[in-house]
User: What shape does this take?
Amino acid sequence: MMNPYFRPIAKKIFSFCFFVSTLIYLQSCITTPPIAYFQTSDSLRFQQLSKIQPKISRIQKSDILAITVGSLNEESNAILNFANVNALTTTTFPNIQLGQRGQPLGYLVDSTGHVEVPFVGRVKLVGMTLEEAASVVRNEVEKSLKNPAVNVRFLNHKFSVLGEVNRPATYNLLDDRTTLPEALAMAGDLTVYGNRTNVMILRENNGIREIAKLNLLTQEVFNSPYYYLQNGDLIYIEPVKAKATYTEQKVQLAPIYTSIATTVIVFGTLLVNLFK
Assistant: This one.
């Protein structure tokens, strides 16, 4: 039978444990959003979506191009491809991972829409698609080399992903068929606190900035003109309200946790002394 002297202390300990259990329970009561993408009805097993085509990029002033030329003349190849294999000298900043290859020099499209190509001179490429530009360069290079293979790619096209993703960063836009789901996959998918019902895309069209919001939980993204990314797109994933609540709750409970720790130490010390 418990000593009457210890009963008040036991009641205080019981009340304290109940209070701590209640705090832990309340902190755990945070709902997480559903994360099933592109939902359809359960009875639907096959669906054919409407066909959409990406916008074909055209060369603009200030674009940086990779123009690779292959021929039987290795010396000429080395000269023509010099700008593609030599990187710009850049400054290393804190928190930047070393060992990554820098931005190649490339061929800059000047203010008149021309690029300067070795053995060829100035070639106007502005307004052309990559395939059209490759054909024009090939015709000019053929005047100096026999049967050259020419390939043209963008070096400066990119998109950025910010907000509640696992790897927010700026990524190279390799072609016109990169999609929004692919971009999110490159960024490591959304975190558990990412709002999948309100994905924001900021895009500039002919100097006019546009903002679109898409719901990843439905199939509307597949029919959206923002399904295929374009150069300069910014994708922002806002946090759900649960994260804000959770963060505020941690800040508010910090003093309480400190008090609990202090109380535990005091009670522990008291009990040790009582049972000596």
Summary: Confidence is low (pLDDT under 50) at residues 91-100.
